[in-house]
Amino acid sequence: MAFMELQKLWWERIFERDRDEFSFGDTLDVKTGLILVILIFLAGQSTEFFRSSITFFERCLQYLSIVSLIIGGAYAVLELWPRSFLKEAEPQEYDNRLALLTAYYADEPDADFALTMAFEERVEAAHKRISRNSANNKRKSKLLNQSFYFVIFSLAANLTTVVMRLFQ
Fold first, then answer.
1. What is the pLDDT of residue 141?
2. Structural domain includes residue 26
3. Could you tell me which of 92, 64, 84 has the C-alpha nearest to residue 151?
4. Which of 21, 91, 95, 101 is the most exposed place for a label (fewest CB within 10 A)?
5. Would you list the DSSP string of the chain?
6. pTM for the whole thing?
7. 86: left (phi over 0), alpha (psi -120 to 50) or beta
């Protein structure tokens, strides 16, 4: 009895992780969208700096900021690039598969054998989805981090320019 309860808890955790991995990609996309908004703001700010008279050092800072924004924007676009995530099958597909397994194992002495086989196939499919979706999310997360670092560098350059202009 304890083994079956433990196995049920384990399976629930597998399916929960499957759902988490699937939705995590959307979370990363939302964060990347926020980075793009900040990136656009900083690009506009840099444009305004170039329209005014700025010192040579401030101009160099702004060139670095623009280059950083371009690289950060490229990483953000790559993060948002569509990828194919695996998701759980439609319920009717499981119903059809269970019907096929029930017919195939109709002569088995254990009446629940077909149901057990169908459930094990579902668990195996969840493992495959978790593996693939996790790999996609790791790539997306790395790209998001790279974009973030370049935007932070640009923010630092712009803030430095603002502080320098305040004390001129």
1. 95
2. yes
3. 64
4. 91
5. -HHHHHHHHHHHHHHHHHHHHHHHHHHHHHHHHHHHHHHHHHHHHHHHHHHS---HHHHHHHHHHHHHHHHHHHHHHHHHS------PPPHHHHHHHHHHHHHHTTT-SSTTHHHHHHHHHHHHHHHHHHHHHHHHHHHHHHHHHHHHHHHHHHHHHHHHHHHHHHT-
6. 0.78
7. beta
| Mean pLDDT for the chain overall | 86
Tell whether the model's pLDDT for residue 11 goes beyond 90.
Answer: no
Closest CA to 118 of 135, 94, 139, 141: 94
Asked, for residue 155, whether it belongs to a domain, the answer is yes
User: What is the mean predicted confidence (pLDDT) over 22-36?
Assistant: 91
